[in-house]
UniProtKB/TrEMBL annotation:
Superkingdom of the source species: Bacteria
EC number annotated for this UniProt entry: 2.6.1.42
Broad EC category: transferase
Protein name: Branched-chain amino acid aminotransferase
Keyword annotations from UniProtKB, A to Z: Aminotransferase, Transferase
Length: 341
């Protein structure tokens, strides 16, 4: 197989064209065959419901080239189930788990030459998405849906080890509504967060740390990632109806338990920030991104989490553990990885 000319160690998190994508259409009440395409474009009706009324949801997962040369995909059944919940939340046709997993296996195999070599810290990012494609001018759900999975090689988020960043809080912005679409992976949530995100960047912060949209008392999400804090022997993460249930967070909770820690899923009051020894955001892209400082733009309060600007020991241990499982360096005791043959 011809290797693409890619500087694997210097990849960023951006789109790079690969060989193929896979597609599957729901039409006449059923899902069709999985189709393979080498086109980066889709023919789409100008009145498609995804364009007008936001019938779109997506997923994000990764495939890793392991130490033993094998390719592992991390917890794809979890992504398949969340994809179903997202579809249901937008009145779209949910794709059965088996078809989802088959599409993942297929798109990874077809683009095998784009899976970064072991040791580069890079991986193959898999992006499934579903859109309503029937023409709709009146507001109602589509009857036809398209699921596409594309892949792109991505670099490690932190090239020279962790770099903790500063985040900010502002009550001027919400990511989602209290009983809205926060718990599903709708593209619209991202569109709605761009203004706040750019505001945070302009002020020199990596992301906006959102408070719960109802009472503005509790920590909700850290940009488009889940929040966790370490306090003594506890891993603390918000329980909230308006956050996206992160599979990384779920995995970290399990690993924290394995390490003998107590896991607390509960409301995290804003004032509690001062008492955490470590704070990080978590998600597939970065696994963990440590937070060094949180500035409340409304009150002027500053929470210094890491005075040294270094990631804490627990965050580092959790990060190393999950990466070791993903790259097949340590036994996958929870059965999280599927080897793609
Ligand atoms: C995707 C996403 C996450 C992270 O979920 P993972 O399954 O860990 O990748 C967290 N928050 C939001 C809003 C997301 O969209």
């Amino acid at each position: 197989m011809k290797q693409p000319e890619i500087d694997w160690s210097n990849l960023s998190f951006s789109y790079l064209k690969t060989d193929f994508n896979v597609r599957c259409t729901y039409k006449d009440g059923k899902w069709g065959e999985i189709e393979v395409s080498d086109s980066e474009y889709i023919p789409l009706h100008i009145a498609a419901s995804c364009l007008h009324y936001g019938q779109e949801a997506f997923e994000g997962l990764k495939a890793f080239r392991g130490k033993d040369g094998k390719v592992r995909v991390f917890r794809m059944e979890e992504n398949a189930r969340r994809f179903i919940r997202s579809a249901e939340g937008l009145k779209m046709q949910p794709m059965p788990e088996e078809i989802f997993c088959e599409m993942v296996r297929k798109v990874v195999k077809l683009n095998e030459r784009f899976i970064p070599p072991y040791g580069t810290g890079a991986s193959l990012y898999i992006r499934p998405l579903e859109i309503g494609i029937s023409p709709r001018v009146g507001v109602s759900p589509a009857s036809e849906y398209l699921v596409i999975m594309l892949v792109t090689p991505v670099g490690p988020y932190f090239k020279e080890g962790f770099k903790p960043t500063k985040v900010c809080i502002s009550r001027e912005y919400d990511r989602v509504a209290p009983k809205g679409t926060g718990s599903i992976k709708a593209g619209g949530n991202y569109g709605a967060s761009l203004v706040a995100g750019e505001k945070a960047h302009e002020l020199g912060y990596s992301v906006m740390l959102y408070l719960d949209p109802k009472e503005k008392k509790y920590i909700d999400e850290c940009g488009a990632a889940n929040f966790f804090g370490i306090k003594g022997n506890s891993y603390v993460t918000p329980a909230s109806e308006s956050i996206l249930p992160s599979i990384t967070n779920k995995s970290l909770r399990q690993l924290a338990k394995d390490m003998g820690m107590t896991v607390e899923e509960r409301h995290v009051p804003l004032e509690e920030l001062a008492s955490f020894e470590e704070i990080a955001a978590c998600g597939t892209a970065a696994v963990c991104s440590p937070v060094s400082e949180i500035d409340d733009l409304d009150t002027g309060d500053k929470y210094i989490i890491s005075a040294t600007g270094e990631a804490g020991p627990v965050t580092t241990a959790l990060y190393n553990k999950i990466r070791a499982i993903q790259y097949g360096e340590e036994p996958d005791t929870h059965g999280w990885c599927e080897v793609i043959e």
